[in-house]
Amino acid sequence: MNALSPRRALLAGCGLFAAGIVLGAALAPRVLAPAPVTVARGTTLASFAPEAILSVTYATRSGITTLQRAARGARFHVQSTYADERPPQRCTVPADLAGHLVRFAEMKARRGLSREQRDREFPLQLGVLDIRDNVTGEPAVSVLVFANRAQSALAVALGGYAGEVILPVSELRWLERACDTVAMSEEPAPLLAEPAAAPDAMVVTTSAPDPSPAPSSTP
After folding, report:
1. CA-CA-CA-CA torsion for 17, 20, 24, 27, nearest 10 degrees?
2. Looking at residue 38, what is its pLDDT?
3. What is the mean pLDDT of residues 159-170?
4. Which of 46, 51, 160, 162 could, after both became Cys, cross-link 118 (CB 3.0–4.6 A)?
């Protein structure tokens, strides 16, 4: 058999490479797509110990809000940036997010959804929710969040499955405006300062007690 000329060998190699790309593109959805998982009512889709959560990030088309802390039990530092002309917001919030953290710590399914059901019943993609903790060996959980047309119910998709979740839409709205609701002052209030007028959002400030003794009532 005659040996292939260098030109023919090069052409043959290119042909095989192109065929490999075409075949790979055809097989990729079958090879890479995760197998569907059956989700029943009450299935836990994601779960964290609330005190172990170190960061929560919610990214939407209108902006990104990140809550992050360095250790268990610490307050969260919050930063919200926006796609429009609004200036960014920065604040700190309580370690339990004023009771909201536990609601993000466990995502339970109200019911499972096929891809077709999710596309049909929850057509609005709201954003991406990313939660990370300090448990060694446990990966972060990132879920795509969808809403129905009335934005009265939520569904999430992760790991090849989807489900309507028992999580009120109001929790995500709260997450986007955490600095407007439960923000805490970074600095203690001055001693004996007159209390400021309370704004619409609750602001918690702290001040050290006056160490001087109380005045005597005896003349």
Report:
1. 170
2. 67
3. 88
4. 162
Q: Which residue has the tokens 């040996």?
A: 3
Predicted confidence band of residue 182 (pLDDT cuts 50, 70, 90): low
Rounded CA separation 205/83 (Å): 30
Q: What is the DSSP string of 157-176?
A: EETTEEEEES--HHHHHHHH
Dihedral angle sign, alpha carbons of residues 10, 16, 20, 21: positive
Vertex 141 angle, CA 59 and 135, to 5°: 125
Please give the structure tokens belonging to residue 204.
């918690």
pLDDT (tens digit per residue) in 118-148 = 999 999 999 999 999 888 666 678 899 999 9
**Can you give the pTM of this predicted structure?**
0.64
Identify the sign of the CA torsion 89, 95, 100, 105.
positive
Q: What order do you get walking across the sheet with 76-82 strand by strand?
A: 44-47, 106-113, 161-165, 154-158, 141-147, 124-133, 53-60, 63-68, 76-82, 89-93
pLDDT of the residue at 138:
67
- The first and second tokens of residue 144, run together, are 């795509």
Please state, in angstroms and as integers, the Cα–Cα distance from residue 160 to each residue in 29, 31, 56, 154, 165, following that order. Answer: 12, 13, 22, 17, 15
- More reliable by pLDDT, 84 or 38: 84
Three-class SS state of 175: helix
